[in-house]
């Protein structure tokens, strides 16, 4: 199975006063297409920085990130933004929903930004899969945490991205809702044939992954 992400000699250092923080330190990693990969590590190990760079939200000091055959940081400003919207779905811990938009509008927002035609039946299929087909007109402030995270999952899936990046997506949920959301996310990724890369500090979630990558001091120390 081919890799969808190939990271070569990636470096990202931060200067904090006189100290240098090696957030990503000459890291190499390949992520396989169609798999669920969990990235684990202690707080401050560099896993969030790595995910941000894979998603094109942060630029490395040096090194290369190839996604689906495209060298991410050879793309100029607007090209990178368009590539991100088409190829990468994001799911964040704090949901990042627009409070003034209802569920449907939040889900189709990335497609609207890209000027793509919304296929109503495809969106309804995803909303049905995640159990929100009766909430299409609901506003975010009327939803539970688990429902908000389901909306965020639907929004990530709807553009049919090549890869979904999730940063502690269940961090704000209780343990029962967390497992429900994770089971749902795994099922959706499988059904829609997508690749999931998730940062987590939760051992239970890591055990659900196909591949676990351990990060320490900005380096990959284990992949299993």
Give a structural overview.
Strands 6-7-8-3-9-10 form a six-stranded mixed β-sheet, sandwiched between helices. A four-stranded antiparallel β-sheet has the order 2-1-4-5, covered by helices on one side. It starts with a strand and ends with a strand. The chain is globular. The protein has helices at residues 47-54, 77-87, 103-113, 120-129, 145-158, 175-191, 203-206; strands at residues 3-16, 19-32, 36-40, 62-67, 70-71, 88-92, 163-167, 195-199, 211-216, 219-223. It has a single domain (3-223), classed as P-loop containing nucleotide triphosphate hydrolases (Rossmann fold). By secondary structure, the protein is an alpha/beta fold. It is built from seven helices and ten strands. Strand 1 and strand 2 (19-32) form a beta hairpin. Helix 4 packs antiparallel against helix 5 and helix 5 (145-158) runs parallel beside helix 6. Helix content is 33%, strand content 30%.
Topology (elements, then pairings):
Blueprint (H helix, E strand, L loop, with lengths): L2 E14 L2 E14 L3 E5 L6 H8 L7 E6 L2 E2 L5 H11 E5 L10 H11 L6 H10 L15 H14 L4 E5 L7 H17 L3 E5 L3 H4 L4 E6 L2 E5 L1
Parallel strand pairs: 3-8, 3-9, 6-7, 7-8
Antiparallel strand pairs: 1-2, 1-4, 4-5, 9-10
Helix pairs in contact: 3-5, 4-5, 5-6
Task: Give the tally of β-strands.
Answer: 10
- Would you list the SSEs in sequence order as H and E? EEEHEEHEHHHEHEHEE
Pick out the low-confidence regions. none
Biggest sheet statistics: 6 strands, mixed
The number of distinct helices, counting runs of at least 4 residues, comes to 7
For the record, the count of structural domains works out to 1
The proportion of residues forming helix, as a percent range, comes to 25-40%
CATH architecture level-2 label = 3-Layer(aba) Sandwich
Radius of gyration: 17 Å
- Looking across the biggest beta sheet, what order are the strands in? 6-7-8-3-9-10
Q: Overall mean pLDDT score?
A: 90
Derived from helix and strand composition plus strand pairing, the structural class reads alpha/beta
Q: What's the name of the CATH homologous superfamily?
A: P-loop containing nucleotide triphosphate hydrolases
Question: What general form does the structure show?
Answer: globular
Distance between the termini: 16 Å
CATH class: Alpha Beta
According to CATH, the fold-level topology is Rossmann fold
């Amino acid at each position: 199975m081919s890799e969808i992400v190939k990271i070569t000699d990636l470096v990202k250092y931060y200067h904090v006063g006189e100290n240098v923080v090696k957030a990503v330190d000459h890291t190499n990693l390949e992520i396989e297409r169609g798999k669920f990969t969990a990235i684990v590590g202690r707080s401050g190990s560099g896993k969030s920085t790595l995910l941000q760079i894979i998603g094109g939200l942060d630029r490395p000091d040096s090194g290369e990130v190839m996604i689906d055959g495209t060298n991410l940081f050879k793309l100029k400003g607007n090209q990178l933004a368009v590539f991100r919207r088409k190829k990468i779905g994001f799911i964040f811990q704090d949901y990042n929903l627009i409070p003034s938009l209802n569920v449907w509008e939040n889900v189709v927002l990335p497609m609207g930004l890209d000027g793509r035609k919304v296929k109503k039946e495809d969106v309804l299929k995803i909303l049905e899969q995640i159990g929100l087909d009766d909430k299409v007109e609901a506003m975010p402030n009327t939803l539970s945490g688990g429902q908000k995270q389901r909306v965020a999952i639907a929004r990530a899936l709807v553009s049919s991205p090549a890869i979904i990046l999730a940063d502690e997506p269940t961090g704000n949920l209780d343990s029962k809702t967390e497992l429900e959301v994770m089971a749902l996310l795994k099922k959706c990724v499988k059904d829609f044939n997508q690749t999931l890369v998730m940062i987590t500090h939760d051992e239970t979630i890591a055990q659900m992954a196909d591949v676990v990558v351990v990060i320490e001091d900005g380096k990959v120390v284990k992949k299993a």
